[in-house]
Amino acid sequence: MKKRWIFAPILLSGSLISTQCSSAKAQTTNETNQGETNQGETNQGETNQGETNTNASTNVDFNKEINSTLDFEKFNNEIIDSANNEYPSVFISRNASQFFISSFIAMVAQLQLISKIEKQKPHNDVIYLIDSSVNSYEKTSKKEMQRFNFAHLLDKYGDVTLTDQNNNYNVDKGKLLALDNPNYLNLSGYQNYSVYPRNLTELQGYLKPYLDKQVKLFDFYIPDISFTALNSQVRNFILEHANKIVILSDGNAQPYSFINDDYIKWVKNQKTHFSQEELLKAWDSLKTSNPQKIDFHYFYTLEDKFKIYNLNGKYAKSFNDQLEKEGFEWAKINIYDYPLNYLNITKNLPQLNEQEFLSDYNKLVNLDNKKLEDLIVAGKQNFNKSKKNIVFTGSSLFRQDKGGPWRIKSDTLSRKELHAYFNKILDLYPPDQYNYLYKLHPVYKGNQALEYIKEFTNGHEKEAIILDPSISWENMLALDMQALENNESVLFDRDDFTSGQVKTKLFGIQPTSTVLLATIVMLQAQFKITLEQALVFVDPKNFPISDTFNIVKRDFHYTGNDGQEANRKELYKVYKHFIETGLFPSIELFPAMSEFLK
Q: Which of 6, 73, 109, 457 gives 20 to 30 Å between its CA and that of 19?
């Protein structure tokens, strides 16, 4: 009898990772995931992989131009609405690149628009909660270097956390509160912020300056899988105090977990549903002393108050069609697009001052006056502009947990396959013709990046060109796309794609990484190309499917054909809706590792 495991996938800045497995013959090591996310608070249900049809994608038309057209009108209107209404915007972040990109765009734009309003609304501020491991308020106040630089925004727009001689918060003049612990608000007994507020007391601690002013409603911006992971008391408080809820994507965890494992499974167990009028009445009642309490999932369809965003929301057609076919038309939801290229924001938001927006955003993400070459933190002497590029997009699959072994060293079962894979890459892309660039996961800091590459390449670290792991790959792409206008791009040539050739290709060991989809979306938007053309840059052949280790869940290994079968099901489950809507390539284009190594 096969074992079934309940697991919660983690999306760590672009990689879908979990630590539980559903496989009869999977071999496990003794290492467990002690990572950032408390998975026990998220019940994502059981995975039934046996029903997955991984061959359902073979007839998709890669050349459908409509699929590469993004529409940011809803997202831009979200920003304008929050900037003009009377409610503070609360960004409940988690350590995920996709959320940082979309939320930072919204935050910076809102702050600028709010500052231009002639008649200021006293509490229409921005509240940003962030992991202490990513950004510490103490370090910010000391102007110390961190992954993000909130100091400029706090100085420019006013820091709500500051107090006067009477210990009154700067809530009347300040417009930004950016914290990782409520203790900075002259409170005590709180823990550092990690992933999402763990209890109601913690969330109320962050909101204290506004609750003290009798502010009742907020605009909440929150990652998809954080919203479902909240304990019911915290989530109910948000629903009771929400003017609106904006769900931003954590990455590939949205279709995999938020939609497949949570929403759709919930829908199929429902015997009743509500009209839009009934839902709005229930929503409004939550703000009264006589609330009509219904399951929070019902509000996903209430677009007046609840919207969901993704880097390409058109994938929703896949599961919506299936819901309609099965008689659940009432449960269909729209998912809208948010932008990845921050350099293009003001083209669709003319209310913003372009120079001011870019200055604020670049300072926040430490890209002020930077180009891609400036982001090389090691091996710059190896870079040769006359060569083509091969870029490794790393994941946290073999990371070191706190107090535990470093998997890239200790996982001997996987190391052999990883080394064979890299040797094959060397054969396909000779170092005398290609620059070997590495964009690792942000978890690898300082010398850890070089050590990881040394282990992964089995001693070829001397040829490595290491890009700053703390900068998102999407922001790097945006910078370098802009540099192409002046023929100063590192990654692109002007005749890329039109010639069927490209200057740069990606490679990696985890095809479930959000980096693949994000890169495809950005390439199609920037160069107006088809999916098939984008796959010359994001070549599935360079992301073979492992025979040895699970590509989603840490510390699970296979023998024989079990790994290939399990991993193909994992890959299809992650991208199913994108494949069926022509937004991602067929699983058949990703070779088995054994085939790749021939």
A: 457
